[in-house]
Specification:
Elements: H1 3-92, H2 96-130, H3 136-187
Helix pairs in contact: 2-3
């Protein structure tokens, strides 16, 4: 073989080697490109799923917030009504000092009436004992005294009921205040 032929065949050989390397490199790049395309598709799919999940979570969160706000509005409405009712009721209530003073005055009047009744009964007993007076007016007076005695006894029971009512009202107010304090403590 001649030198030119050798060069040509070496040239062909290297061209063939270069061509094979080029095809190998092209195949590798094609595989890498295919992997990148697959990765891009997977990432795009994951991002779309994440976006859909975010929208679903946001929608659920908005619904929950709206529901909680509506519940809070209803609670506040009821609580405000209760507060207004309690304020109105408080305005109508007697102050403690005045109620105590009225109770003392009533008890003093009752005691005074009891003493007068005892005096009248003893006088009536004296008149009856003497036997000198059998007047129908005295009998009417005795009936009236018994009525007064009954009224006094009835008033004593009413005053005791009023005291118990005041105790129940203060107990309820205290209980509601405790519930409100617990709620505010848990809220914070």
């Amino acid at each position: 073989m001649s030198k030119d032929n050798k060069n040509i065949s070496l040239k062909n050989h290297f061209e063939e080697v270069i061509k094979l390397h080029k095809e190998s490199i092209d195949q590798r790049f094609k595989n890498i490109d295919d992997r990148f395309l697959g990765s891009e598709k997977n990432v795009a799919s994951a991002l779309a799923s994440q976006k859909e999940l975010s929208q679903t979570v946001q929608l659920s969160s908005d619904k929950a917030i709206t529901k909680a706000e509506e519940s809070q509005k209803e609670y506040n409405k009821g609580h405000n009504d209760l507060s207004r009712k309690m304020e109105d009721q408080y305005k109508e209530m007697l102050p403690r000092n005045e109620a105590d003073q009225r109770q003392i005055n009533t008890e003093e009047k009752l005691e005074s009436h009891r003493k007068e009744l005892v005096i009248l009964q003893s006088r009536m007993d004296e008149w009856r004992g003497k036997g000198s007076v059998t007047d129908p007016l005295i009998n009417d007076l005795m009936i009236e005294m018994k009525k007064i005695s009954l009224v006094i006894s009835t008033n004593i029971g009413k005053n005791e009921g009023t005291d118990k009512t005041l105790y129940y009202i203060f107990a309820i107010v205290g209980f509601l205040g405790t519930i409100f304090g617990i709620y505010m403590g848990l809220k914070n």
